[in-house]
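Collaborator request, handled under Task 6.
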Amino acid sequence: MLQRPDLKNPMFVSHLTVNVGSRFEKPKKIVLTRHGFGFNNWEMPAMASMGDSAIGVYWDIKELKAGTQREVRYAYGEGIAVPADSEGRFDLSLGGSFEPGKVFTISAAVADPAAGQSLALELPPGIERIDGKQIQPVAPLSDGQELSTVLWKARVLKTGDHTVRVRSSNGITQTKLISITLAAAASKS
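Structure tokens returned to the collaborator:
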């Protein structure tokens, strides 16, 4: 929203989003209006800001049983509003033996998975995937679960520098570099 309807000189600019994480309920309706206009009314009318803007955010009416809660959230302010930091973000880990011919694991621990999110594993020619589909869906979190984990198994085929990359359907990419040398391979045998 612009304080002044002039893109070359808007004065104060504010940003609004209701996309702050898939676990939060999105509002049913948003009203952009003038500050001080329509307060103390259930239905806030939309008005030109006239230099001082305000918003009304409406969620569906829901009956809550004793001891339950409802999580709603929005972001509004001078900075650019972005989704919650954790939504769909993941930590990439490698484990096991990296000796040529041995099996190691590639795991992605996803915090607050985005709806429909999937992860794609990209391996260089010196490493082969031996278990887990190349593209895997990220399971939604169950009650009490903090992370959703996606696993692959792979094998190093030859020495050298190898980049393991996992790309998320939400645009996040993580990489790990594995350096395998003859000395390292010999010392582990």
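The cover message to the collaborator said: "Residues 184-189 have pLDDT under 50 and may be disordered. Helices lie at 182-188. Please let us know whether this matches your experimental observations."
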